[in-house]
UniProtKB/TrEMBL annotation, chain A:
CDD domains: S1_Rrp4
Family to which the UniProt record says this protein belongs: Belongs to the RRP4 family.
Database matches in InterPro entries: Exosome_cplx_N_dom, Exosome_RNA_bind1/RRP40/RRP4, KH_dom_type_1_sf, NA-bd_OB-fold, S1_RRP4
Basic and acidic residues: bias regions: 10-23
One Pfam family named in its UniProt record: S1_RRP4
Annotated Exosome complex component N-terminal domain residues: 87-129
Alphabetical GO biological process terms: CUT catabolic process; exonucleolytic trimming to generate mature 3'-end of 5.8S rRNA from tricistronic rRNA transcript (SSU-rRNA, 5.8S rRNA, LSU-rRNA); nuclear mRNA surveillance; nuclear polyadenylation-dependent rRNA catabolic process; poly(A)-dependent snoRNA 3'-end processing; TRAMP-dependent tRNA surveillance pathway; U4 snRNA 3'-end processing
Protein name per its UniProtKB record: Exosome complex component N-terminal domain-containing protein
Segments for region (Disordered): 1-82
TrEMBL record, chain B:
UniProtKB keywords: Cytoplasm, Exosome, Ribonucleoprotein, Ribosomal protein
Protein name (database record): Ribosomal RNA-processing protein 42
Residue ranges with Basic and acidic residues bias: 327-343
Compositional bias segments (type: Acidic residues): 86-96
Source species taxonomy: Eukaryota, Fungi, Dikarya, Ascomycota, Pezizomycotina
An annotated GO cellular component: ribosome
GO MF assignments: mRNA 3'-UTR AU-rich region binding
Source organism per UniProt: Sordaria brevicollis
Length: 388, 390
């Protein structure tokens, strides 16, 4: 069957906020009184969840907080009725009560009669930590932090640096002085290097790098001064950035590892950039050229040799079996993201093993690597069942 | 013609993608089989203010909605066809004949706008998309005939096609499928007046007739309807691409970036009942197939031609021994030789943008693959049949 057409899914409730469950000063007080203004006026995005008595967070007069009412737009009425986790939109007032402190994703606006109102600056879910109100975005761009391992794509070449897309609000900078020169030579960067800057990285090239430094405005400066970092080849790229709410790539102990794949696929490297850019490639042991072998190969020498192959954009020979397993791992990561699960070493490894088993029983046999649609959901269900 | 948006991929990625898609069978990055479409979510009747609407959403979040609005418009009398007015006043035989002939449409009766976020209305890509979609619709001249009310009035149809997510892949198949569904769901008020008088319509929306009349039997008995009464349907435009000798349907953005050829093939169902029944009898065992015919074929300029080539290690000055500074001139000369051959010939693992036109054999195979009985277009139309119209 080349095409599967599914009926529309019911609206998925955004991840529940933990703080709400412990503390319901604002949400529960007005459970029955506020039904009148939230009558459905049109299309409902919700399925069964809305039938509950409305626990709206508006005008909780008993507790003293005055949450402002929403406009009666059809679409919004359904989303706020999700119990205890309301979605707010930018510019929407959360409260005017001075007892609350404003946190991330909010600002103070004094639009009405000198009254200070905490207003959302994002589309997200209101979270409360004691008296601190913040809005967790539904989707957010990557915020760089020093030491993060990121995968980025060169989008611009300037005289002394590259501009790298890392899925952040700004392009990151990779200065010419922050890369290893081929052959591991240590010297000052000269005009000659500046002139042949494109021989190191050109537009479109993918790099794995580390965040070295942050600017005041959140822009990042990267470096590739390690043998682990540099240009990427022999594999596929995928971006799973911008997924909020606990899914997507999370910071973890290991972002880079080598997976021993099934079906004669050989070892496969997986790089999960903290920024949500993922690189899956064939694992290649550093090749030592003949000339270098003749010379004595010390540890320092090895470093030279390895870094000499760093700027190659020629792929090695990759067996079809390896390509198939790479596609399978990519499918696993997609399935994880589409089903709102986190992407880390543990989940990817488990998901991959599960996928290999699933393929064995599928009609396509072990060579069937398709993990979209229903199979992805199956995979996610198997994983969450196992982890729970 | 106008290409899709430029994708920035590294030469190593392109080389990998091209290599994996050239295998037999090809390995697509998302693991689909060559003829498999991305799973999608479809629904109709989402916009209450329209005559017909549909929404389709891919799993990656690409989403399109289409709304169809109809409006009664006075037909301009044509002066270059005097027979239209004068001939009708002649003897009765002519009138009878004219009644048949006169049901004809005009391409102006359909207005199609495509909107893609981030692109201007008059952007070449957007204009091309809309031209391609309307061309498929108007190609056989059958569609506009459905808009004919009487000799003085007709329906004017406004098709608004909106992509409501950023274009993550070339949106043509998505927009085409959504338009198809919206047109299937389109209903026009029932006409109460007769002849050439000013049109008067039934207020009851429940009595409104589908623009594309549905077969009387509802689903469950799909097999009987498909060959007993061949119903005409709006066209679908499929995006097909070829890498080497592999033919790949519904390519994603990355796949399109290494395509040798990309074609947009518009397929409609032939509404000629006599020939279709004859063919149905012949191949009755292959049930559920449609009587397909090609409405239009357009080549899409794949972005692969604009990609920068990869640099083979032999000519890479930042690679290996070259970078370490090969001292003796003898060796350098040798390397330059190597580099020259590498530039002119294909090196394994190095990306090189396709040059030259498409091979006629590949083009023929592409079209063949679409039209095949029980092939992709057949199955796509069947799957679209299954969508609940409301």
């Amino acid at each position: 069957m080349p095409i599967t057409i599914l009926p529309p899914k019911a609206f998925r409730e955004p991840p529940r906020n933990l703080h709400h469950d412990s503390d319901d000063v604002m949400s529960d007080a007005s459970s029955d009184s506020e039904d009148s203004d939230s009558q459905p006026g049109g299309v409902s995005l919700d399925s069964g969840e809305t039938i509950h008595p409305r626990k709206r967070r508006s005008a909780a007069t008993t507790s003293g907080s005055t949450f402002t009412k929403r406009p009666k737009t059809a679409n919004i009425t359904s989303s706020i009725s999700v119990p205890r986790s309301a979605i707010v939109t930018p510019g929407e007032r959360i409260t005017t009560d001075p007892q609350w402190m404003r946190g991330h994703g909010t600002y103070l606006s004094s639009a009405t009669l000198g009254e200070q109102a905490i207003t959302s600056s994002l589309a997200g879910i209101v979270t409360r930590t004691n008296k601190l109100l913040s809005v967790r975005p539904l989707r957010a761009r990557y915020t760089p932090e020093v030491g993060d391992l990121v995968v980025g794509r060169i989008v611009e070449v300037q005289a002394k640096r590259w501009r790298v897309d890392v899925g952040s609000t700004q392009l990151a900078a990779l200065p010419l002085s922050a890369i290893n020169l081929p052959g591991g030579i240590l010297r000052k960067r000269t005009e000659t290097d500046e002139l042949q800057i494109r021989t190191f990285f050109a537009e479109g090239d993918l790099v794995v790098a580390e965040v070295q430094q942050l600017f005041q405005d959140g822009g990042a400066v990267l470096h590739t001064r390690s043998l682990k970092y540099g240009k990427l080849r022999n594999g596929v790229f995928m971006a799973v950035s911008g997924t909020g709410g606990g899914s997507g790539v999370v910071r973890s102990r290991r972002q880079v590892w080598t997976l021993e794949s099934a079906n004669n696929g050989g070892p496969i490297d997986v790089i999960l950039g903290v920024n949500g850019y993922v690189w899956i490639s064939k694992h290649v042991d550093p090749v030592i050229p003949e000339e270098a072998k003749n010379q004595q190969t010390g540890i320092t020498n090895l470093e030279e040799v390895v870094s000499a192959t760093m700027y190659s954009s020629q792929n090695d020979r990759i067996e079809p079996e390896t390509m198939r397993e790479i596609a399978r791992i990519r499918g696993v990561v997609t399935a994880l993201v589409e089903n709102g699960l986190r992407v880390d070493e543990d989940m990817v490894t488990k998901g991959y093993n599960e996928a290999v088993e699933m393929a064995l029983v599928s009609e396509g046999g072990p060579e069937d690597v398709y993990l979209g649609g229903e199979r992805g959901e199956q995979l996610a269900a198997a994983l969450t069942g196992r982890l729970a | 013609m106008a290409s899709s948006q430029h994708v920035l991929l590294s030469p190593a990625e392109l080389a990998y993608l091209h290599a994996s898609l050239s295998l037999t069978p090809p390995i697509r990055p998302d693991g689909r089989s060559p003829t498999q479409f991305r799973p999608l979510v479809a629904e109709t009747g989402i916009l209450p203010g329209t005559n017909g609407s549909a929404r389709i959403c891919f799993a990656d979040g690409t989403e399109a909605i289409v709304g169809v609005k109809a409006e009664v418009e006075r037909t301009r009398t044509r002066h270059d066809f005097p027979s239209l007015d004068e001939g009708a006043e002649g003897d009765d035989d002519d009138l009878e004949d004219n009644q048949h002939d006169v049901v004809k449409g005009d391409n102006d009766w359909v207005e199609m706008t495509v909107e893609i976020p981030g692109y201007r209305d008059d952007d070449a890509g957007t204009v091309f998309l809309s031209a391609m979609l309307s061309e498929a619709l108007l190609a056989d001249g059958e569609f506009t005939k459905r808009l004919w009310i009487n000799r003085r009035f007709h329906w004017k149809l406004y098709l608004d096609i909106l992509l409501i997510s950023p274009p993550l892949s070339y949106p043509l198949p998505l927009l085409s499928l959504t338009t198809h569904l919206a047109l299937l769901a389109t209903r026009l008020p029932r006409l109460k007046s007769e002849g050439d008088e000013d049109p008067l319509f039934d207020d009851d929306w429940a009595a409104a007739a589908y623009l594309y009349p549905r077969p009387a039997a509802k689903k469950g008995s799909k097999k009987t309807t498909s060959f007993a009464t061949p119903t005409a349907r709006p066209p679908v435009t499929l995006l097909v691409m070829a890498v080497g000798n592999n033919i790949i349907f519904d390519p994603s953005k990355e796949e399109l970036a290494v395509a040798d050829v990309a074609l947009a093939v518009s397929v409609g169902e032939s509404s000629n009942p006599s020939s279709s029944t004859a063919m149905d009898i012949e191949t009755e065992e292959t049930k559920g197939h449609h009587n397909l015919r090609i409405l239009s074929v357009r080549t899409i300029d794949p972005p692969s031609r604009l990609t920068p080539p990869g640099i083979p290690n032999a000519s890479n000055s930042a690679y290996g021994a070259n970078a370490a500074g090969a001292k003796d001139t003898e060796k350098k000369k040798q390397q330059q030789e190597q580099a020259r051959t590498a530039e002119s010939e294909a090196v394994e693992g190095v990306w090189k943008a396709p040059r030259g036109g498409a091979k006629p054999l590949v083009l023929a195979a592409l079209v063949q693959k679409v039209l095949e009985k029980g092939g992709v277009a057949d199955e796509v139309l069947d799957a679209l049949d299954g969508v609940d119209l409301n």
